[in-house]
Amino acid sequence: MKSIAVVGAGIVGICSAYFLKKSGFNVTLIDREDPGTMTSFGHACSFADYANVPVNYPGLIWDVPKMLLKKDGPLTVDFFYILKNLPWALSFLKNCKQEKVDEIASSLTNLLKHSHISYDEIFKEVNVQEYISHEENLYLFDTKKSLHDYEYANIIRKKNRVKVRNLSKEEVKELEPNIADVYYAGQLFTGSRHTTNPLAISIKIFDKFLELGGIYIKQNVTNLIQKENSIHLSLENKKINFDKIIICAGAWSNQIANMLGENFPLDTERGYHILFNTNEKLIKRPVAWSESGFYLIQIHNGVRAAGTVEIASINKKPNLKRIKMIERQSRKVLPQLGEIKSTWMGRRPTLPDSLPIIGASSKNKNIIYAFGHQHIGWTLGAITGKIVSTISNDKTPNINIEAYSPNRF
Ligand SMILES: Cc1cc2nc3c(=O)[nH]c(=O)nc-3n(C[C@H](O)[C@H](O)[C@H](O)COP(=O)(O)OP(=O)(O)OC[C@H]3O[C@@H](n4cnc5c(N)ncnc54)[C@H](O)[C@@H]3O)c2cc1C
Question: What's this model's pTM, rounded to 2 decimal places?
């Protein structure tokens, strides 16, 4: 039985470890933290199968200054950091051309189409129904202008046959009567579902992996060396040889790729959440607020307000101004929110073309990369795990994965 190490126990690593174990590998999952507790813990809870519209879009370059000047806008930037990383920013902007955006949207749709069914394959064996809600996600437009500006996203969705339903203000009110009268209109993402407890789902899949005979090591990966037919992995206090290695360390993946002599243009879009106390159930479904770029979600222990984008160093301390902004806007949309229970910052792993890397290294087919899932890594965890397992078995996946090749940069 071949031995395989999976580095990173976020949702991508956990699902990869699960599918690899099912396909007969001897699997060791390694993380310096507890499984599922980093970026995969604090997100906006959506299985966003509809989210095929990349952050790159034509005209973004003109909108960025407006977004930055807007009080309580969705984006903030550390300019010194951007200046130091100008090539990444330029590469990101290059991917905003219409034809590139169309290509990216179609490649994202290709993966997203399989996301639901791949999770269901896991959920047949791992019972997580108590943590899943089928109340469809709602997007709220603050003004007529923001509804109008969103038209480009509707066109992309339509082209890729992603269904949405436009809602009048009255229709929104019927669905979610507790939301304050601050919005103009809404849109419903038809057929979408969400979780009320992401960590519980990660842990349930992880526990099944252990039950199937998988091994977990809680340690930092400090080095990797390629040997003739194996990969030598150094942890804090031991060294182990594996036949193959999967690198799915989210926003930290390039640090590990560097150990192997490879380099990818991976950066971080930082995002935040606040957990509010609530005495009663205030909303049924995730509610996105266009003015500030975050979702409000009723989860098992309160209402979580999660989202926004901050371009800054992976290691920089959380920006308290962003937390204040999310609090201010959350209370505007849902005035019944109670006191703050906790706050959190997470790091979305993002490549300049908003597509993940899923594939074998061109230098060594025993090294497989699976990272860079940006805003939709929770949604794409299971399908990524399935692809990783297929290519680890030297088989061809039943979807075309060329667009996610590690060699495309
Ligand atoms: C505010 C916010 C809202 C979001 N909302 C959604 C949403 O609604 N739907 C959706 O689909 N996606 C959402 N996302 C995106 C999603 O959360 C991420 O894309 C996803 O969690 C990434 O998963 P991952 O497994 O790649 O990374 P992670 O969960 O970050 O896991 C990577 C793991 O690698 C480990 N690691 C790193 N380096 C080492 C090392 N040297 N040694 C050992 N271990 C190491 C880390 O400890 C970590 O546990 C959101 C993100 C944010 C920030």
Answer: 0.98
